[in-house]
Fold:
Amino acid sequence: MSTTTARPRLVVEGLGTSFPTEDGLVRSVADVSFSVAPGQTTALVGESGSGKSVTSLTLMRLLPKSAKAEVVGSAEFGTRDGRRVDLLHLSDEAIRQLRGNELAMIFQEPMTSLNPVFTVGEQIAESVRLHKKLDRAAALAHAKRMLDLVEIPAAAQRLHEYPHQLSGGMRQRVMIALAMACDPTLLIADEPTTALDVTIQAQILVLMRRLQAETGMSILFITHNLGVVAHHADDVVVMYAGRVVERAPVRPLFAAPQHPYTQGLLACLPGKAHAAGHERPKRLFAIRGQVGSPLAPPPGCAFEPRCDQAVAACTQAMPPLITIADARQARCVLRSAA
Amino acid sequence: MQLPRIVRQLLHRRIVMVSAAVLLAIVVLALGAPWFASFDPNDTAVLERLKGPSVAHLLGTDELGRDLYARIVYGARYSLAIAALTALGSVVAGTVIGLVAGFFRRLDTPLMRVVDAMMSFPDILLAIALVAILGPSLFNVVFALVLVYTPRVARVVRASTLVVRELLFVEAVRALGVRTSRILWRHILPNLMSPILVQVSFIFAYAILAEAGLSFLGVGVPPEIPTWGTMVAGSQQYASQAMGVVLFPGLAIIFTALSLQLLGDGVRDLLDPKLKKTLS
Structure:
């Protein structure tokens, strides 16, 4: 462990995913770099269509083959046995063996992410039998322990229930149990609380943090909810139109956002607007306009059409990601390198 | 938890229950044929030919004096076996084709165009052509009927697969590292069981009719084997002298096929609550 704790568990460099369509190549994700440290949470933040889900699916290699995605870059992952592997270039069989075992993923929709015709116990047991080669009885016993771990009451009974008998919050707990069953070192959580009630959201987030503290796993947390980010992330990667626009540890990011988009996002939060130096608004702040079409990106900065601070240089070329301070980067011409 | 509810609801439906009872009776008669029939189905008695129903011959005799009741009961064995094998064969083949076509998009078009081509032939014509080429035998009739009904199952299974494969749980189990083959058989197939079960009952009914039709047209089972189809076919010219020779095997065909259809309808309505609402 001592050798791997120093190095990030996942290092993504220059990740790009494009899809050929009839109207041309759609660059869903371009030039995305970030890392996830052991036992830490990196949040991937952005609005719908910013490429955060495509990023996670690319890392898990779950994009449908029929999409003919063109993927560039690298994603170096530190396995349990100390090897460094590139997730994007592993063989199908090798990535399959990592999935569910060392890499796990939970999804946005707990209502449909469980197979309706199997009991939750069978579904958890399947993953354990697959990766840990346990027999049926041992796998079911393990499944019960997992349900206990995610604080499902009456786990022994729930084990034999079908997904439709559980509430949304319970199903998301089952999904977490399923993802955690083989003790993964990296959990990719794609908006795991979006479909849940606010009170249940908080419970699920607390549960995930507890599990992280107990197991030392890393979490790549994909969300559009900045409140969740502030409470649960260690590092934040803000994405806009498929690119990273800002990267920072969580406290500096919220204290002094560098990119106009991040500033706008924070200003959208009720109560944050005042603190960020804006006049006390009568209405909630909203970033004007909407995300442009990925088919015809502007020649310059992708955010320029919506940016209140845009200058002439913004329309010329896509600004590079500038390192402003230690572990802080922003993609904006208004910022100068440290 | 689900099965008892469905069984309970089935018990409340009189048509379904009557159909099931009729089918059960036919199956019991067929299986226990030697105990239920006092004559050998192939024993001829020329002096007793074309008799109407009597105490000795419950349903009368045919043109060779063979006991009609014994022939129907023994014939049920062949008719039901042919239909059951047809249903089984076409459901297995159709499910494999439908699953593969629905799941692997690249194979969809080539597989389904072949299926479409086969479906564009009228059922009975295709079966006649196949038996004519292969020669009449029990096996060849089953084989021809399986080929005829496989496309039907393949279409239904493909359509259902297209729906199920897009559900998030398929991606979720993939994210757990489950192999594609296992996803297909263990996760998608069980979700298709209700449309498949309904197809089984319908094809069973169609196959009974089709076997009778083929035998009647002389391209079915060899005439010496008693099936309901060969009975009608062999005795049709004597129908004016003794109605029973075509009436009784015909009734057996009707009751069996009708019961299967009604049972299939009932099961489908129960398994598809949306459809039930629009019907009632």
